[in-house]
């Protein structure tokens, strides 16, 4: 039998142990069936989740001579009974009957009412095969007939909820398999299952299905960005730890920026995942293996390499005697998913050694997220309790600059649009600016809360002031701050000040009123503010941009002395902006011992608005919409509440 050099050497090495040559080869199962390619968009439109995804993976495994060394299994149709372990009867019935003639006309309508779902006459069959194949593979691994395996299936599963298809997912393949092992096969002795979800999106469906179940530890690492990344909302937050008996058995690692790569993922592995897995000691691992965090993926915007995936998988092999069932989820760059899949199957086969080191460091935001997760979960997992050493978290790399936001959270679901957007991205390495004057270095060490009450309440809008760029409706692009790191935290708070609108026209927003906070507090008023935790250096750059000054400057507008003064006196009028509209910096108190600052007009200007010398003007429609959008997307207000609040502030006399 011809063998690749590496693996035959491996067998030879093992011969002096008690294993017989040939037997030491791990038995790895692969499931693939072309039938699952028949699920497609109904009218041939382009879509990122397209049939060839699984075909290219399969072809790559064959080309590399890897599938030949695996046990290839045919697909398997899921039983309704097993699907109903995690899905409602209605949902199963809906998916089952999708292909019938009488549904021909309803399919598009059904799909349109769901979030990011398309359906055709073969969707039902593919969904049954995807779920059933993962079940069958999991059964064989649990039984010991196989050591591990990879189900190359579509449609994907992890977004599918109990009663709802979404995010390209119809049945939750991995959840069905987990539930099958726990509830239908007590004979197999699987009592504890670890589900690892490294798809770039949060596995919201899986999380909900095992929310109260301590038999399943769900671990998901995903882009979250304060709920703006798909799936939208708070589900993927690290505070979502499970409930009742399942409390502590749900672990989310929510990135708050894109571009995360091997170093970030491996840091999450080393400092969260591996210690917890050791404590949990699973009987088997199911892996929601989406490859959309891979470098080159059009939706993910992350940078995990095939090496990164193999290193993560290798670390999983330490647990559950290496019983790992991989199921494909997302992944939309054909080349990336094929190479990543190959790297993973080679790990399952124990083909090659993986070096544990990686060449770069994690982002600063990665350490922040990892620390937050450890803190939130250490009550359940004592191995997370120690503080990470200063030396460790000081090893970080700067965030590269992206001029246009590439978050997959926009309203249109258009792959080409996303690809176009990606190709327009201008990514450079953020170089430590040697000309960066010392005031910047000093003020970068101090955090403040910048409290916004106008268009900056809309986070993408505010990010323009930090990262540069131009959101919808903004008439001129912003250059951004010199330090482009995103805010470290965002909180909402209400203060006893008054929101009002004045001014006829602005260069940034066109006609209509500009938002002001009355600099004086008044217990009869309420102003809702979005607080961004940024550095005092960044606050200077925001203040300068708000007042149409260049950020390229040798001196700070608002220095440490001014900060001290503002904290003591409540307000300060920095000289450089004293004649501008936002000429006053007001201190609204402290949050976590960090001063809360807002910028608004001076007291004398607000008096002129009061007397009528300066006209009040309600915001123009587009501007009002930006304000409402900020309030709604911040998650604190319904659209009606936000509208009422803006409407009242715009119409009441000052
Ligand atoms: N309408 C998986 O990777 N994007 N699903 C929607 C906003 C949906 C991804 C964009 C992404 C779903 C399995
Ligand atoms: Zn995904």
TrEMBL record:
Specify residue ranges for compositional bias: Basic and acidic residues.
7-21
Query: What keywords are assigned to this protein?
Result: Chromatin regulator, Repressor
User: What InterPro entries does the annotation carry?
Assistant: HDACs, His_deacetylse_dom, His_deacetylse_dom_sf, Ureohydrolase_dom_sf
Q: Which cofactor does it need?
A: Zn(2+)
Q: Where is this region: Disordered?
A: 1-21
Give the Histone deacetylase domain ranges: 47-347
Which protein is depicted? Histone deacetylase 5-like
Keyword Cell inner membrane part of the UniProt annotation: no
